[in-house]
Amino acid sequence: MSDKKSVLILNQHAPYGTSNARDALDVALTCSIFEMPVSLAFLGDGLFQLLKNHNTQQTGHKNIESMLSALPMYDIDQIYVCAEDLEANALSESELALPVQIISQSDLSKLLDSHDTVLTF
Prior knowledge:
Blueprint: E1 7-11, H1 20-33, E2 38-42, H2 65-70, E3 78-82, H3 83-88, E4 101-103, H4 108-113, E5 117-120
Parallel strand pairs: 1-2, 1-5, 2-3, 3-4
């Protein structure tokens, strides 16, 4: 059994307008460098962080897609979204920039319980 603490990072904010999305990804990559098992869940407005082809020219924000694309290189492949969030936003899995595991809202508590540390952004 590993002595490394598992970390679940909940992303609940839109990708731009605050630093939450970038901060969450920075924490995920940092934890991975220290060989901590990292999972990410994109919930509510956080789901929009995963959309393909972000256009940030109008907002002046730095695009987070390059950070998202780095996740697999850091062995971060446990990425979750809720089916209810996809449906509520009329989105499909094919519109997302990364492969995800779709869970139900009722399974979210099991996901939370399966990790030693949960961080919310």
